[in-house]
Request: fold
Amino acid sequence: MHGRVKLKSTAQQEEEKRKEREKKLKAFVSTRDAVLKKRSAGEQDEEALHLTQLLLSSNPDIATLWNYRREVLLHLETLREKDEVQKLYECELHFIEVCLKVNPKSYGCWHHRTWVNTRLPRPDWTRELGLCDRCLGLDERNFHCWDYRRTVVKESGVSVEQDLEFTERLIGSNFSNYSSWHYRSTLLPRLRPPPPPDSAPDTSPAPSASPQVHSHRVCEEQLLKEYELAHNAFFTDPNDQSAWFYYRWLLGRAEREEMISCVYISREGERVSVAFSKPVHALAVGLMLVLDGQPQRVEWRCAHPRFRHSPVWLCDLPPGSISDMSNEHNLTVHWTEKHTHRDCALYTGCAESWCRDSATDQELFRSELSVEKSSVLQAELESCNQLLELEPQNKWCLLTIILLMRALDPLGHEKETLAHFQSLKEVDPMRSSYYSDLCSKFLIENTILKMEYAEVRVFSLSNKNLTTLCHLDQLLLVTHINLSSNQLVRLPPQFAMLQCLEVLEADDNAIESLEGLYHLPKLEEVSLKNNHICKLSDLESLASCIKLARLDLRGNPVHKTANIESEISQLLPLVTALSL
Amino acid sequence: MGTQVKDVIIKPDSPNTLLLDKHADYIAAYGSKKDDYEYTLSEYLRMSGIYWGLTVMDLMGQLSRMNREEIIDFIKSCQHDCGGISASIGHDPHLLYTLSAVQILSLYDCINVIDVDKVVDYVRGLQQEDGSFAGDKWGEIDTRFSFCAVATLALLGKMDAIKMDKAVEFVLSCMNFDGGFGCRPGSESHAGQIYCCTGFLSVTGQLHQVNADLLGWWLCERQLPSGGLNGRPEKLPDVCYSWWVLASLKIIGRIHWIDKAKLRNFILACQDEETGGFADRPGDMVDPFHTLFGVAGLSLLGDEQIKPVNPVFCMPEDVLQRIGLQPDLLS
Ligand SMILES: [Zn+2]
Reply:
């Protein structure tokens, strides 16, 4: 079905083709019928092998025929001596090789080859490795062959070091070999891995030991070599994406610690909010709440019903348990699955309290940024800058420089970062939405950092061309937010994680959806001037914000709705100051 | 110096409007010549072929042109004692064709013409210790089959039949350095496989485990200057990969990261103005497989002449609404 070019042909050519096909079809159908007849008669003999061979050698994708062959082979096995069985299966391997020449990407062929190896009395792994080498020599991107090769490597005892050399050779002969770079990413974490933290001798790696999860295990010395290998590749051919993808993985390999990042408690409403370092399902992870030494039965809920997994979970304490201002309380939230917890004290006379780590840049966004020594990163940045001088239009280089600058000093490099994003959108307009979203994310991270340093609960990010909102779980304690004059189209469900929010300004955007303004218990004032709110139903979620008193909707299409004022006062009876 | 970008050139006289009537005629006629060479040779995947044809007809509002009774009888005759369903009569049952059959019967709202309990038993029986799924009793393991298993069970409303935690663990173990997924742990990322794995995680409510920003970047980098998408770096664009990449982006909430107008242009250029149908690339031979994915892709891009398609099941949204299935999508 792939790559068959449609050719113009004459009537005579058509007729010849038709005749030839008719002949082929006839032969195919008669052989197929003979095979089916034999199989339903339960015949498992040499002739069955011969007939299926005729069909499979030109149509290796007919899975049922391979199945029949396996049935026949298993039967013949029982009739023959060991040496004959060896011969039988060697013949089979030879036949598969012929089929692979016809179609090197046939799932059925490769699976059958794997199966034959499990039946061979004396499998020859060296020969199989040779077959893989030849096959990858013809097509270095054939993932079927790479997959088969991994099985062979495992059986034949090729070491990780030897395998790394193998990929280096392939990369050396052609940098643009994504398959080899990929394979390296799976090998590196297996290279002399440091002992696991709780060095139990039987900690066999779980199947989840993928490069995504365990990427941080790459040792430093090897990393420097990898940087160099990637440099060689992209200095030779700066437009080859393979090495750049690999390099970005090397830079961002750190992993965020799993923890309870914040606990917030409010006397009003007697409510607790808990933020985690990753989305969790509160019921599944064993969350336990202890108030003044007493475990409490509470019902955990997500900030928004759209989510089953969320980084923020809420619960109400039993009525009367913390409402008296003159009492002091101590709260502990346990994340039993991860053996971690966080305490929070609520002192006499305080209406609210919270406990969290004062977040620094490295901790906060460590899942994206490397914790590599800054001298190394500085050197990397310098060489990328050199390359950019030679190739000022190179998008891969521009993006990588942005990432390096963020790893080194996100706030110090903010201006340059914005300029590079601008260039990226110009040289690669097809992906401008991606760059806009990524830039928005970085600006939000920077604003969170600035807010941290200033120790305030005001988040202000207006007039910055924001196209998306993210990291909203980090804004759990924010009381005032200003997002005016951006390009936002929605306040997403995640916005409901801003449990302390009192004032929202989001004028002059393109907001059509207010889904995230949902059960925000302290929200009093919302300004949404000049947005794209069209229907009364778009405002429905606001009804769940019980303190909302001031709402500014001037400059939205919704004002054209008939009887809009009375409709809104019916929907939001508590809003006393409405501007339309 | 410098790699030549592998891509195609779209000729100025390529089709640039959607030829829906021609496509409907093409699919309606396909299979009417049952002794045709191409048709006979594709017998080993007939059940999927019927699913492609029926789904694209339904998306175009032309399902009634297909022979419902004949198809239902055919499916009934393809269910085996083990509960699994084969591509055709005389072929062996397999998860791929079991899913296709269940999809077809869901389109026709008559799932009970087959023995549903036995289908569930068949799917359950193929789950391995490590949570993975074999495609059939011969033991080939692939994340495609994990998707087939949960998609089949979801359509049957029997998701609790398998060990879900293990199934999820296996799929996550196939996640790669680029955020994508391959066939088995350690296999290179591939758009078709990514579609299966993000679809799997959507159906099982585990999409929060995806690194959506990283994966989304890799996926949007599949778009080539012609507007078409490839399935892996340095490969040619293709209508079917366009669907797999696009559907994956939709599932992880990042569909706006590609240039929609350019992709639409590419897909339209893959139509055959004479015969109807879509090919993998402009100027190639058409087939029902690429015709479905061309039309479904245009639907995801928002073409209002086509019914909305669900990115996870590649079926019309109205069918899934009727069943009451609403797989998660990231926002
Ligand atoms: Zn294709």
In short: Residues 11-40 of chain A form the longest helix (30 residues). Chain A has a mean pLDDT of 90. Chain A touches chain B through 71 residues (CB under 8 Å).
